[in-house]
Amino acid sequence: MDGASAFVRRDDDDGVVTLTLNHPDTLNRFSDGSQFLELAAHVRRANADPAVRVLLITGAGKAFCAGGDLRHMAEREGFSAGDVAQVQARYRETVHQLPAALAEADVPTIAAVNGAAYGVGCDLACFCDIRIAAESARFSVSFARLGIVAGDGGAWMLPRLVGRSKAMELAFTAESIDAREALRIGLVSDVAPDDRLGQRAAQLARKIARHPSAALRMHKRLLRDAEQHTLATHLDVVAAFQAIAHASEDHLRAVRDAVGALGKPR
């Protein structure tokens, strides 16, 4: 896809990759399956590169992502086209590739939510490891309002973030909440003034990216997989990962730097 029509813009900065949803004229809405595949491919490409330490996702213009294209839905076009079997297959082949790519990614991910995050946009943010929001950001699990369900895995992720009761409330009412409420319920971990969101996100990314990439990725796997593992299984994996980390040059360099710093006057 050429740069003029690409849904996603990629920028690289010393181990931090920023993916920007870049159709501001449509509020970065997903209009067809190819856009899910495009973003998923970017996520997988960044994850496959050991030089990438942090992946940051944001939106261009006034919105993070305002959901799906309502006009296409009304006309049964795009990923809404066809009979039940065709829609089901299309979701599996296109829409579901995005949450799968994010859920499988070992690289730490940040969503910088710069505006409306509705429907799939809200779920996209939820599948990132850390979410920070601009003061003007709003979140809505808006599917019920349109007579559909969260077709992109959001119903699996949301209760893990805000608890079952609050997730049910957000899904059943389909009402939007502002950034401060999102912070209160734990949907986001920080709120920044609109004109400082980019700076705040970049600062957070830099704090993470200063650490050895392999250790970051293993630590993320431990945190993520602990939700499914027993403690015994978790400790087995911990022992293996820690042995790998102790044998690494990154660890040796980091611990020698730390020892050297002990002798420096403060």
Question: What can you tell me about this protein's structure?
Answer:
48% of the residues lie in helices and 16% in strands. The protein is of the alpha/beta class and 266 residues long. It contains twelve helices and ten strands. It has two domains: 6-208, 2-enoyl-CoA Hydratase, Chain A, domain 1 (Alpha-Beta Complex), CATH 3.90.226.10; 211-261. It has helices at 33-48, 70-74, 84-95, 97-104, 120-126, 154-162, 164-173, 179-184, 197-209, 213-225, 231-246, 249-262, and strands at residues 8-13, 16-21, 54-59, 63-65, 109-113, 116-118, 130-134, 138-140, 176-178, 190-192. Helix 1 (33-48) links the parallel strand 2 and strand 3 (54-59). Helix 1 (33-48) runs parallel beside helix 4 and helix 10 packs antiparallel against helix 11. The protein is globular, with a radius of gyration of 20 Å. It has a six-stranded mixed beta sheet, with helices on both faces. The chain has a four-stranded mixed beta sheet with strand order 4-6-8-9. This is Enoyl-CoA hydratase. Belongs to the enoyl-CoA hydratase/isomerase family. Its EC number is 4.2.1.17.
Task: Please specify the SSE layout and strand pairing.
Blueprint: E1 8-13, E2 16-21, H1 33-48, E3 54-59, E4 63-65, H2 70-74, H3 84-95, H4 97-104, E5 109-113, E6 116-118, H5 120-126, E7 130-134, E8 138-140, H6 154-162, H7 164-173, E9 176-178, H8 179-184, E10 190-192, H9 197-209, H10 213-225, H11 231-246, H12 249-262
Parallel strand pairs: 2-3, 3-5, 4-6, 5-7, 6-8, 7-10
Antiparallel strand pairs: 1-2, 8-9
Helix pairs in contact: 1-3, 1-4, 5-6, 6-7, 10-11
